[in-house]
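ingest -> validate -> predict -> emit
validate: passed (alphabet ok, no gaps, 444 aa)
predict: started
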Amino acid sequence: MRMLFRILFQTVLMLAVPLGAGAGSAVAAAAHPTPSAGKAATTGTGTTPAVPVAVLPVQSAAAAEGPQGALVIIGGGLRPDNDAVWQRIVQLAGGKGARIAVFASAAADPAPVAAAIVDYLKRYGADAFQIPLAVKLADSDFRKAAEDPLLADAVRGAGGVFFSGGDQARITQALVREDGSRSAVLDAVWEVYRKGGVVAGNSAGAAVMSSTMFYAPKTVFATLRGGVRDGEEIAPGLGFIGDDVFVDQHFLVRGRFARMIPAMLKKGYKYGLGIDENTAMVVDSRRRVEIVGSKGALLIDLSHATTDAARAGFNISNAVISYLDNGDLYDLGTHAFTPSQAKAGGLLKAHKDLVADPVFSPDILGRNALVQLMENLMNNRRSEAIGIATSGRNTPLPELGFQFTLTKTRDSVAYASAAPQSYSILNMRLDIRPLDIGQSLRTE
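emit:
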């Protein structure tokens, strides 16, 4: 593998853009161009629950106006001492003493998982309680529990709902009827949300927030090579955020941005939001997203992206990615960005002292590698960075890899905070193309 990366790096040196070419200009009013609404045109193994059919919508006057509540979408790994996220959940549920219904439906062992979450929420002032509804809950019929009017009333009387981590397929199996309609308890969850309550979800609980979710996914690299299929790698979610935004979790730490793009193309999504661990996206009733927690989120915009069907292997051109950091705000309606208070005066500007070394990552799917590459490029005089993805060091040398090219454009903008230093980076172009690594090696 060392020889492979050395050859790839030499290739990067030949492909790198000359210094000063297209470094881009900073735009003080940082906002994405507003594209047309709607969706873009499209160009496992193991034992899993039965694949759910699409959740049928329930029409009402309140639903037509849109939910009045908030979503707290957590990327997994939520620590008990993450005050900002736990306190926000309790606040949005009504403050001290607020009733919060806890679903551990995704968990392999629901009872202790639910008990732990109830305990955390109580420490932060909520009156939390467990809803005993889970596929894996011992001595329980989850189908009957999902239609239990007493459980539905208990949920309906709460100011908030919390979905635990685990396997998101278990959540939809427990709460969605076999015909795709909402169970009585799921209807009650929606009522909480419509009337102004909060729906929070961690890890698997975050995955169900969009109308499409990953169901039984392959590895990220295998998804790039083989794509996704309805009822296999992807399936219907619960759709709280709406049908125009795809949501994923454990996002940057596991390189999952590269699996989201094929799924978005498959289902025609223009926008995707991936949240990292121990961090939350708080989405209010006006669809404004605030990043809260220790890390950030990646926004993927495919509204102007294209693919070449005649080309062998997965490829995409002109995708746009943005990294949103703690405290940043992004409006899903207007596509306007507001930096956190810590970065309000920290707009980065090009200057002659920037380094000019080639910007390269030999493992773009590695832990936080994408954001690191984005930061390095914004602090560099070059306009292009290249990352490589392969099947991994513990597998035989792959014949096919992928090249990820990041490009600064005139719309690319970055903000930085002073201490501790962190970045928000907007509007960076991303192109992905197959890379025949085996052929490259054979020609050496």
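Residues 186 and 318 are 39 Å apart (CA to CA).
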